[in-house]
Amino acid sequence: MRHNISVLLENEAGALSRVSGLFSARGYNIESLTVAPTEDPSMSRMTIVTRGSEEVIEQIVKQLNKLIEVVKVVDLNEGAHIERELMLVKVKAEGAWREEMKRMSDIFRGRIIDVADGTYTIELTGNGSKLDAFLEAIDPSVILETVRTGACGIGRGERVLKV
Amino acid sequence: MELSGAEITVRCLQEEGVEFAFGYPGGAVLYIYDEIFKQNKVKHVLVRHEQAAVHAADGYARATGRVGVALVTSGPGATNAVTGIATAYMDSIPMVIISGQVPTAAIGLDAFQEVDMVGITRPCVKHNFLVKDVRELASTIKKAFHIAATGRPGPVVVDIPKDVTTHLTKFEYPKSVSLRSYSPVTKGHPMQIKKAVKLLLSAKRPFVYSGGGVILSESSNALIKLVKQLGIPCTSTLMGLGGYPETDRQHLGMLGMHGTYEANMAMQHCDVLLAVGARFDDRVIGNTEHFKQEKRQIIHIDIDPSSISKRVKVDVPIVGDVGQVLGEMLKLLQASKDKGEQTALKAWWAQIELWRSKNCLNFDRSSKIIKPQFVIEKLYEVTKGDAYITSDVGQHQMWAAQYYKFDKPRRWINSGGLGTMGFGLPSAMGVKMAFPKANVACITGEASIQMCIQELSTCKQYHLPIKIITLNNRYMGMVRQWQQFFHGNRYSESYMDALPDFVKLAEAYGHVGMRIDKPADVEGALKEAFKLKEKLVFLDFMTDQSENVYPMVPGGKGLSEMILAEDL
Fold first, then answer.
1. What is the mean pLDDT of each run of 10 residues along chain B (568 residues)?
2. Which residue in A158, A159, B59, B504 has its CB near the most CB atoms, within 10 A?
């Protein structure tokens, strides 16, 4: 099953490689990994999307907790949570495509953040499947480039991951 | 007054009460060595290869329970240390390894003797640090010792660039450390402990399986009391030997791939299993699917939550210090009126005695060729079971574990997890440094001993009268055994050709060498060797080339599917 694991860790050089090294050394899969400092600059928040059986996920959480720089770990799938991912897509915007791309972007509540003679760059946020749906909805030949951040997640309601 | 990073490093070691630093100098650590020269609180032991420095510190740590310290230079010094670090990591041994690094300005520029030590050791340390600012040096070393020794112990690397050792700052050694991201749970959950006791008292076929955690947490006494109170059988893993007296009837010997018939059968057929500081590894329970076929309830005490339910699902997990949890369990047991299932227990013991009567460790004692098991038995007798025994890796290691009966913790020192050949001699040096008056023997083979044989020179320099017991069968015995069993007798590259004359070799290093060819001479040679109190004696026993280690659970097989000596 797909799990969204959130990690609070010390914002120190090498902390990221400890996490990624753990995943490769123990053969765990990483679908996506995002990390950035939190409002407290001494701490980073990482979101790892992974797949595995319940036993594997339990081990992943335990092994993450074992890393000295990891402060807290939560498997967001243990409760209700929200996930968002950001994608930038550069598409052809010539002739008929110019109008069509604008329309598709509107339908998916995207924003065109860069306009050039022959291209648009569209910004889209949502969960992963919405971004996938957008890419499937447009003609593959118009896609020039895509870049995605990977998912980040947060618990719903009162659920808070903090020190 | 401001001190240099090098002086701070040595002062920190002094503050930690470090007796010995095992190491080898080099460019990046010259300033640290200069400070070592100027003091005499921390004694430096100069080895002949960095791997040996780490193994020696490791042996010291295993024998004393204190943090072992090694000091190596950057680049090749650091990479040579890696095998030793990984060895300590796999067996959870508390160590601090200080490595030199090229100056901070040169890091990343492929400088001479530069290697990314923090990167290379990341998967085989409990934690590691690169100290880029001299003001953080003392607090980092404090953290390193704290992390190494607490929770599930392990090696910690502190990598210090050369310029940091010259920079000046005020020195103050922190009295304590608190890390928001690191606070191991030491107290077991009271409800879980209650549940465990209840389960043990309801058991019809209870069994205690104890591992290295018992030794690491100094919980031997607590374990003995609990097992005695319950009157139930127990076993130890390779790492746990000595945690419970092996000569006691309630102990069924070691379990696992080369465990005794009775221990493995009891492990497979018990209905309640109490696992104490052990991790159900592949060499212990064999095929997990086969292990799961028998229904049993498992209680697992371990300080490392990730060891619990890793390979085998556990019913009553208890995260905590083994000694604390066993103590709490004992209190509950002593207060309880429940005496357990006495009738069922009697039947269980009867079954166990039946298994035990197979006498699975029997061997041909009338052989004309020296049987390796015979040498260990005689060594046990001659040393009255009271020596510190280190070993290398292979058949001799298993025979040592099977035939030397350890009654005390920290007497059996071997590389269990990583299985590092070359561990025996340097680790024996660490033990001998710690306990100069004790008998220290290194049980080894003619293949293993050659992996760190250069340390005979270190032994000479520091007058370390270790007794080296070499079971010389002219083969990498364990490799040969597997080739015989599983590879159609094709002994690919496992014959040790062109062996040196070990007697002459020992003499060349200034030691005493003996070669023993006949069973009748074994006891005499051992006695003579231990009489030479001031001498390292290299005993080269020419043993039976075809002898195998039994019982054996072949790879992928279940615990009760052992090959026994009598089967062949």
1. 97 98 98 98 98 98 98 98 98 98 97 98 98 98 98 98 98 94 93 98 98 98 97 98 98 98 98 97 94 96 95 96 97 94 97 97 95 98 97 98 98 98 98 98 98 98 98 97 96 94 98 98 98 98 97 94 85
2. B59
pLDDT for B566 equals: 78
B40 in Cβ contact with B75 (< 8 Å)? no
pLDDT of residue B568: 64
Count the neighbouring beta carbons within 10 Å of the beta carbon of residue A146.
15
Strand order in the sheet with B206-210: B251-254, B234-236, B206-210, B272-276, B297-302, B316-319
Report how far residue B547's alpha carbon sits from residue B555's, in angstroms, rounded to the nearest whole number.
Answer: 19
Which H or E element spans position B68? Answer: strand B68-72
Q: What does chain B come to in residues?
A: 568
Provide, as residue numbers in chain B, all residues whose Cβ is less than 8 Å from the Cβ of A27: none
SS3 sequence of B329-351: HHHHHHHCCCCCCHHHHHHHHHH
pLDDT given for residue B1 in this prediction: 87
pLDDT band at A112 (very low <50, low <70, confident <90, very high): very high
Look at residue B567 in the predicted model and tell me its pLDDT. 73
Computed over its alpha carbons, how large is the radius of gyration of chain B?
24
pLDDT computed for residue B258 by the predictor: 97
Cα-only R_g, chain A: 18
H or E stretch at A33: strand A32-37
Q: Where are the beta strands (DSSP E) in B94-247?
A: 95-101, 127-130, 155-161, 168-170, 206-210, 234-236
Contact B258, B402 (CB under 8 A): yes
Closest by Cα among A148, A110, A163, A116 to A34: A148
Helix (H, G, I), strand (E, B) or coil at A143: strand
Residue among B478, B514, B552, B562 flagged as catalytic: B478
**How near does any CA of chain A get to the CA of B65, in Å?**
22
Q: Which of A59, A66, A67, A73 to mutate to test the interface with B (most CBs of B within 10 A)?
A: A66
